[in-house]
Amino acid sequence: MYNISPETREIAYELMNALSFTVIFQTVSTVMTKGVLRGGGDTKFLMIADILFLWVASVPLGILCAYVFEMSPFVIYITLRIDHILKTIWCIQRLNSKKWIKSIEKKSVNISLEIEG
Question: Among 6, 28, 48, 50, which has the minimal tally of Cβ within 10 Å of its Cβ?
């Protein structure tokens, strides 16, 4: 439909394959982090996971793969999305450990009130 070069077509297919691969992990990590674990009250764990995997893994690896190693767009995209892959693995382990379940209810205090009347 479009008049594009073979190299552009190849890069587009590579990026679509990379997206097809990472969307599975992105979906699982989003459900786990925004739904299940946060709903269970495990917000501190998720804050650490978000910061750690984005700024320690994803961004530095993406920069290294793009500018230092000059890798293909497929590899660069995967490394920029590796935080979702790592979060999926870490969150599934957290889910299975049951450490994420926190009591979020207030403790009730028994006060008896006498109403005159």
Answer: 6
